[in-house]
């Protein structure tokens, strides 16, 4: 019997990962490639699409094939995902015309957002978006290029997000999945067709990718891509999606009531619902699973915040990591378990790069509140972890307002290595938090989607039997009660300081 494998590759903010799985959905091999993120000036965050996205894809693909000895013809299908709502202009040959403007962490287009708010008015904005405009929207990013880089704008053949770029490099087809078109609102209609009237404020209709289903086989690996990636020419490729959607699939978010919390560079949350929930504080769309909807949310800082603390406050931990081999993030946790809930009266607003949901304010700023002489840098770090926990709890409370059940909450991503952080989130939210057995995340979800796409399994019902939780972090009632008054202060800090943040 011929061996069959499925490949999944995910391109992230600081790292790209890839996997090969077999017909029983077991992880056969994995490989990761680290890369940087450029921050040329405040609020600007970029990747070189050719040197980061495509380079990583090819390196991972070749490495997976070489380390396993699997023949390229044994790979039945390829699924990809990438960091979310990015903006990349390319020419007719899919060559990037500038570095990619990244997802919501890049908030350069604040003037374009202000223009759109004035142009449409509050009622029309609510009608089109169902929420306030934010830095995760791609339309203002395209408008920024139009206003600030007209030569690039005029040369643009397509405005792509990262997954569209990878799929185009592989197949020559310019596509975007229905799960991601919401980030391009109002350029696409809810059914996935291009709104030729509304999109003209930003670009021509022909400059947009065609909407396809996430698991549609949209093309096959072409000769050039095969030569660069080591894949077999003619290998089927699905549309793909963003990292958060694939991450949710990897954890078993398959039915209404299931939720995923992705603790990556940012924190992204997806709740699977049986109905469309429209709330201006959150995002809504159809979900990857047929006949379901997503209630989504995203914070700008999670792992990026812990990275900032590592590099700027605990910088000697990196030196020790090189000398001893002990992971710097692990070392930073020393002694944090004895610091009580609430960090002895210290509260951090984690808005170090503005914020997406639930406040949708690119001009929001970080705040460390309650500093006293008895506080240490350990208090600062634990308070930052708690700040992300308070923000997650705010989102869970919104779901409860709509009487949406939380059957299971699955945590995934690099942040799950920090078990103290998961316990903090459980205690603050008073909600059990589970981790998946396969923790590599979105790349595993990509491979699962590839398997479903070409009939490699009976569907999500069969996958649901295979994907089981690894650990469960139960909330501690006493710690939850201690956190309650701190949570109330956290909720008020942004409201009371919003005008001062904007004045900065």
Overview of this protein structure:
- The protein has a domain at 5-244: ATPase, nucleotide binding domain (Nucleotidyltransferase, domain 5).
- The chain is of the alpha/beta class and 504 residues long.
- The termini are far apart.
- The longest helix has 27 residues, at 477-503.
- It has helices spanning 49-68, 110-120, 122-129, 138-148, 150-155, 162-171, 223-229, 243-251, 303-312, 316-324, 328-332, 377-401, 419-429, 442-453, 460-466, 477-503, and strands at 5-11, 15-21, 27-34, 46-47, 75-82, 88-90, 100-101, 158-160, 175-177, 210-212, 217-220, 236-238, 241-242, 258-263, 267-273, 283-286, 293-299, 347-349, 367-369, 408-412, 433-436, 469-473.
- The strands form seven sheets. It has a seven-stranded mixed beta sheet, sandwiched between helices. Strands 3-2-1-5-13 form a five-stranded mixed beta sheet. Strands 4-7 form a two-stranded antiparallel ribbon.
- A hairpin with a 5-residue loop joins strand 2 (15-21) and strand 3 (27-34).
- The relative contact order is 0.13.
Q: Which key terms come to mind for this protein?
A:
single chain, alpha/beta, Nucleotidyltransferase, domain 5, seven-stranded mixed sheet, five-stranded mixed sheet, 22 strands, 20% strand
CATH topology of the domain at 5-244: Nucleotidyltransferase, domain 5
Number of helices: 16
Radius of gyration (CA) equals 22 Å
The percent range for helix content is 25-40%
Measure the end-to-end span: 66 Å
């Amino acid at each position: 019997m011929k061996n069959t494998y499925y490949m999944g590759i995910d391109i992230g903010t600081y790292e790209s990962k890839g996997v090969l799985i077999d017909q029983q959905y077991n992880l056969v091999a994995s490989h990761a490639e680290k890369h940087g993120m450029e921050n040329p000036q405040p609020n600007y965050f970029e990747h070189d699409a050719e040197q980061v996205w495509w380079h990583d894809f090819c390196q991972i693909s070749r490495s997976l094939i070489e380390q396993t000895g699997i023949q390229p013809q044994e790979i039945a299908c390829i699924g990809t995902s990438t960091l979310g709502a990015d903006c990349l202009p390319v020419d007719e040959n899919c060559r990037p015309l500038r570095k990619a403007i990244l997802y919501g962490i890049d908030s350069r287009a604040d003037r374009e957002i202000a223009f759109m708010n004035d142009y449409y008015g509050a009622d029309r904005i609510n009608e089109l978006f169902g929420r306030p405009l934010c830095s995760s929207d791609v339309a203002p990013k395209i408008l920024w290029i139009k206003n600030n880089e007209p030569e690039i704008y005029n040369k643009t053949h397509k405005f792509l997000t990262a997954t569209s770029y990878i799929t185009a490099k592989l197949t020559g087809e310019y596509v975007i999945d229905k799960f991601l078109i919401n980030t391009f609102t109002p350029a696409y209609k809810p059914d996935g067709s291009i709104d030729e009237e509304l999109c003209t404020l930003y670009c021509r209709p022909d400059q947009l990718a065609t909407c396809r289903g996430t698991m549609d086989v949209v093309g096959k690996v072409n000769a050039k891509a095969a030569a660069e990636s080591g894949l077999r020419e003619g290998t089927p490729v699905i549309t793909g999606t963003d990292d958060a959607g694939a991450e949710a699939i990897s954890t078993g978010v398959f039915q209404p009531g299931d939720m995923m919390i992705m603790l990556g560079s940012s924190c992204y949350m997806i709740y699977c619902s049986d109905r469309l929930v429209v709330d201006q504080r959150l995002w809504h769309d159809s979900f990857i699973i047929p006949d379901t909807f997503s209630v989504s949310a995203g914070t700008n800082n999670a792992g990026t915040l812990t990275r900032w603390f590592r590099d700027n406050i605990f910088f000697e931990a990196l030196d020790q990591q090189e000398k001893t081999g002990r992971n710097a993030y692990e070392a930073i946790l020393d002694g944090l378990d004895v610091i009580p809930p609430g960090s002895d009266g210290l509260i951090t607003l984690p808005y170090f790069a503005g914020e997406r949901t639930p406040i949708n304010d690119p001009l929001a700023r970080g705040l460390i509140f309650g500093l006293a002489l008895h506080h240490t840098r350990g208090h600062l770090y634990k308070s930052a972890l708690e700040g992300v926990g308070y923000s997650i709890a705010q989102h869970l409370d919104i779901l409860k307002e709509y009487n949406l059940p939380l059957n299971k909450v699955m945590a995934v991503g690099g942040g799950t290595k920090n078990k103290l952080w998961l316990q903090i989130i459980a205690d603050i939210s008073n909600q059990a938090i589970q981790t998946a057995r396969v923790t590599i995340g979105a790349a595993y979800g990509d491979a699962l989607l590839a398997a479903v796409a070409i009939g490699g399994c009976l569907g999500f019902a069969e996958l649901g039997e295979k994907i089981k939780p690894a650990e469960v972090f139960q909330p501690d009632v006493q710690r939850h009660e201690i956190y309650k008054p701190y949570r109330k202060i956290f909720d008020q800090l942004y409201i009371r300081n919003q005008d001062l943040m904007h004045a900065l």
